Every structure is written in structure tokens, then in C-alpha cells.
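Subject: for your reference before the review

Hello V.,

The reviewers asked for a structural picture of the protein, and I figured it would be easier to keep everything in one thread rather than splitting it across files. Below is the amino acid sequence we used in the manuscript, unchanged from the supplementary table.
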Amino acid sequence: MCTGKCSSCIASTLYPLAVISIICNIVLFFPGGDIKYAKDGHITEEVKYMGGLVGGGILVLLPALYIHLTGKQGCCGNRCGMFLSIVLAAVGVAGALYSLIVAAVALKNGPLCKVILVWATPFKDRDASYLNDKTWWGTCVAPNNIVEFHIGLFATLLAVSALQVILCAIQMINGLFGCLCGTCINKEVL
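And here is what came back from the structure prediction:
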């Protein structure tokens, strides 16, 4: 496969992943679909780090736009353009890694929820993981189904950011080949 076509395929895959990442992070601000928790500051700390919005979203979307251009004919589909795609793909890797780390920490610590009368992170710093034992989930009385909400969205962010890291790393290798060998976009059979 030509390095230019590979760039187009990678960028086309990164677009929806970045959008999913952004949407997941925004939804995490509204547990139970209610804005009152965000207004009152009862949001899990890792949501405020905006790993999905900034890391897996913007820092992956911007390189994806440029990587997409390297797959087209024109000024970006050359050796210098492919070199720049390596640098931007590295930015994408950094952003996706940030999102991955934030999601992993959030899954380890668990959600911020109301436990009897106080707001706390009841699963943080425990020896056993709450992920394996659903009997602990009843500890959280508000917001409704917060543990499932938290696990579902942060697990999605974890999976999406892992794919983004892999795709951006592949683009770094593809960009290196494109930089050294050319993109083969302008090669036509006469």
C-alpha cells in the first residue's frame, strides 16, 4: 500500500475516534443526564482533567486533519509533508496517551458519589477492585447508576485512546517511509 493511501485510511479512522472521545468526556460532566451535579461540583476529579476532550479529542483531531492531507495530491503529499506528519502524529500519540492514562486512573479510583450523606470516592485506595465485585456498587446512592455510567464511559475512553495511540504510532512509521521513499501519489503510468 502506498504511504499516502495509508495516511488517508489512518486519518479516516482517527476522525470518529476523536469525536467519540470528545462526546464521552462531555457526557461524563452530566451523570444521570442531570446538570445539577456539575453545578454543585460533584464530578469525578478525572472528568475535570478532560482527557477525552483535550487529549483524545483535540490533540488527535488536529493531527488527523493534517495526516488526511498527506494522503492527497498537492503540497502536503511530499517528503517534507510526510516528515511533518511524523511530528503531528507524535502529538496525537501524546494526546491519546494522556486520555488513556486519565481513563485508567479514573477506572482504578472509581466515581465520586454520595455515600449515605457525604460525597466521596468510596472505591479509591482499596486493595480489591470494585470492578470485579458488583456488591460494592450499592455503596453509591446518588447519582443513580453512577458506577455503571462511570465504568462504561471511561472504559470507552480507554479503548478509544488505545486505538488512537496505535494508529498514530503507525502513522509515525508510515510518515518515516513516506519521508524516505516518497508518497507515490504523483506516480502515474504513462
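For the response letter, the relevant points are probably these. The chain has six helices and two strands. Strands lie at 113-115, 118-120.

Happy to draft the paragraph if you're swamped.

O.
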